[in-house]
Design brief:
- The chain is α/β, with parallel strands linked by helices.
- The chain has an eight-stranded mixed β-sheet, with helices on both faces. It has a five-stranded parallel β-sheet with strand order 2-1-3-4-5, sandwiched between helices. A two-stranded antiparallel ribbon has the order 6-7.
- The chain folds into two domains: 6-179, 3-Layer(aba) Sandwich (Rossmann fold); 189-396, 3-Layer(aba) Sandwich (Rossmann fold), CATH 3.40.50.10300.
- Helix 1 (17-29) packs across helix 8, helix 3 packs across helix 5 and helix 4 (91-99) packs across helix 7.
- 33% of the residues lie in helices and 23% in strands.
């Protein structure tokens, strides 16, 4: 979704300026046309040549540059931009933006643009928490700026505190969310589940599965990037929490059912990409079962809740079927039994499809009997194909 988007990347003078190079690189890899604007202080930390090499575009550092390709550069960049992103943003630049000061290339560009602006602060913890900085950030939020809050961690001073630049993936995720606000799913509420549930045996052990959560997270991010308001209900995974998405963490099937019931109260669609355990131990030991006492251990299992069947509501229902044999037949049976609108079936025995990998090969089966077999795609590409079908079905669904 970033292909051919013109992104003005502002870089200000803080030690986190080196991370802006990674942001620029990843945006270019995603197909964006990145135009970097650096403050004078930023050039003390990173050379403009670094950004020129990464973006293949000239870097703006001065208000008046007679060799620029733009006649009045700050105005031209401001008008061309699809989005302006400032990362890192110092307290000084935040103060300038809040008060309308335009005494350098970056602040003038922001003042002249009508494009959305994303600000990612990074500074000393005391500077960030200073009431003046907080007031200035509140002013920017009130004017429609998007703030990517800093995170807790080790700062340049050697102290631990709130002030580290947000993760690069979080900043890029926020850019995608902001650019996708007017997408085809704008105004829709989508609930996505992800990961494999963990059904406790004792405080240490659990019954689980091999789900990595990658398909569900890809679904949530794709829906976000198309303008939807997304709630992601996730079982434990090692994945970074996606930006711009309401995330609810659960561990087991009962918790997931409760979270889904709450989240779908006003949802347009539920996409169940989670691998919910079919069984759970009938009873959970209060203390850790000792190895010596567990020789020949037998677990009595009972069925977990069937979330798609038991949670009611007037929303579109999309399921996933991970099958090892008779994929289409078993997926059809699941679609009919659970009264789904759409199901995505995949063969988990294939090396390039299913758990833990970044690709998937699915077959989409809808309630009207239509079957669409997709080629091997990345999970993000699969997510967009599923959402294409979701959008088609939503336009036909009464009340949606």
């Amino acid at each position: 979704m970033l292909t051919n988007k013109i992104i003005v990347l502002g870089v200000t003078g803080g030690i986190a300026a080196y991370k802006a190079a990674d942001i620029a690189s990843k945006l270019v890899q995603a197909g964006a046309n990145v135009r970097v604007v650096m403050t004078k202080s930023a050039t003390e930390f990173v050379s403009p040549l670094t950004f020129r090499s990464l973006t293949n575009n000239p870097v703006a550092t001065e208000m008046f540059n007679s060799t620029s390709e733009f006649s009045i550069e700050h105005v031209a960049l401001a008008e061309a931009a699809d989005i302006v992103v400032i990362a890192p943003t110092t307290a000084n630049t935040i103060a300038k933006l809040a008060t309308g000061i335009a005494d350098d290339m970056l602040s003038s560009t922001v003042l002249a643009t009508t494009a959305p602006v994303v600000v990612a602060p990074a500074m000393n913890v005391n500077m960030f928490q200073n009431p003046v900085t907080q007031d200035n950030l509140a002013k920017l939020k009130a004017r429609g700026f998007t703030i990517v809050d800093p995170v807790y961690g080790r700062l340049a001073s050697g102290k631990m505190g709130l002030g580290r630049l947000a993760e690069v993936e979080t900043i890029i995720g926020t850019i995608k969310q902001v650019l996708g606000r007017s997408g085809d799913l704008a105004g829709k509420r989508i609930v996505v589940t992800a990961g494999g549930t963990q059904e406790a045996i004792d405080p240490v052990r659990y019954v689980g599965n091999h789900s990595s959560g990658k398909m569900g997270y890809a679904m949530a991010e794709a829906a976000r990037d198309r303008g939807a308001k997304v709630t992601l209900i996730t079982a434990p995974t090692s994945l970074l929490e996606p930006a711009g998405i309401e995330v609810t963490h659960v561990e087991n099937a009962v918790q997931m059912k409760e979270a889904v019931a709450k989240a779908t109260a006003q949802a347009d669609a539920l996409i169940m990409a989670a691998a919910v355990a079919d069984y759970q131990p009938k009873s959970v030991a209060k203390g850790k079962i000792k190895k010596e006492a567990a020789a020949g251990l037998t677990l009595e299992l009972v069925r977990t809740p069937d979330i798609l069947t038991e949670v009611k509501g007037n929303f579109l229902r999309v399921g996933f079927a991970a099958e090892s044999e008779d994929m289409v037949a078993n997926a059809r049976q699941k679609l009919e039994k659970k009264q789904l609108d759409l199901i995505a079936a995949n063969d988990i025995t294939a090396a390039d499809s299913g758990f833990g990998v970044d690709t998937n090969k699915v077959t989409l089966i809808s309630r009207d009997g239509k079957v669409a077999s997709l080629p091997l795609l990345t999970k993000r590409e699969v997510a967009d194909k599923v959402l294409d079908k979701v959008m088609e079905l939503l336009t036909k669904k009464p009340g949606k």
